[in-house]
Each structure stands twice: as structure tokens, then as C-alpha cells.
Amino acid sequence: MADTKLLPVSNMSPLVFIVWMFNVVVDTGGQLAFKAAAAHGDEGGVMAHWRAMARRPWLWLGIFFFCAEFILWLIFLSLVPLSEGILLGSLNIVMVLLGGRLIFNERLNGRCLLGIFLIAAGVAIVGLA
């Protein structure tokens, strides 16, 4: 069970920081891989579309990343209090939004940008605590 009297995030150990960053990268990579697997055109019906997705390496890469992310998330939560871990995990949302913009040329409207700002501000506030 995690000790809730661990150091604040601003003083997090290098191990915690490394696990957190790997978690962000792997989770973002998994989300983007799933998007790449699903983004191809219609293959002639629902079942044909699913069979075509199952043949795409992006799907399997996404599954691999999500399995790795699950392990990293458990490690991370064993090292930090849950309240901090959940807030720091919100950075994944920002990275997926930015990755979608960069890789898939998805549009970020004003609400998305405001959300990115609020999440980043929240993570920064937790980091200063």
C-alpha cells in the first residue's frame, strides 16, 4: 500500500519522475496507435472494418502500449498518493490532444485549448504543492 506521506511532487524522486514520463509517453503512444488503426477508410461493413483493423500493426502496437501503460500506472500509483497520481495522469490527455493535432491534423477548438491550459495549470499547481 502506498504511503501517503511521500514527498510532494515538486520533490519527487528521479524514479517517480521517470515512471511518470514513461507512463505519459506509452499511454499517448497507445492512444495514437489505436487512432491510426481505426482511421483508415471503410472496408465494406462493420465486420470487414474490424477484420482489417486486426491486420494493422497499429492495433497490436496500441495493445502492447496499453499493457505496458497498465504496469507503469500500477508502479506509479504505488509510489505517489492517489490524489497526486490522478492529477499528474491528466497530462496524458494533453499529450493525446497535441499528438492528434500533430499526427492526424485534428482541429483544436477554443474549448480544447482552454482544457489543455486548465489541465496543464492543474498539473503545475500539484507540482508546486
Keywords:
6 helices; about 75% helix
Which spans of ≥5 residues are poorly predicted at pLDDT below 50? 1-8
> How many strands in all?
0
β-strand amount: under 5%
How many domains? The number is 1
Order of helices and strands: HHHHHH
User: What share of the residues lie within helices?
Assistant: over 70%
The rough form would be described as: flat
Helices, by number, come to 6
End-to-end separation in angstroms reads: 22 Å
Evaluate the radius of gyration.
17 Å
Query: What characterizes the major β-sheet?
Result: none
Average pLDDT metric: 86
State the secondary-structure class. mainly alpha
Structural notes for this entry:
This protein has one domain (9-128). It is built from six helices and no strands. The chain has helices at residues 14-38, 46-55, 57-79, 82-89, 91-104, 110-128. Helix 1 runs antiparallel to helix 3 (57-79). The model is unreliable at 1-8 (pLDDT under 50).
What are the SSEs and their pairings?
Elements: H1 14-38, H2 46-55, H3 57-79, H4 82-89, H5 91-104, H6 110-128
Helix pairs in contact: 1-3, 1-5, 5-6
In short:
The protein is mostly helical and 129 residues long. The chain contains 6 helices and no strands.
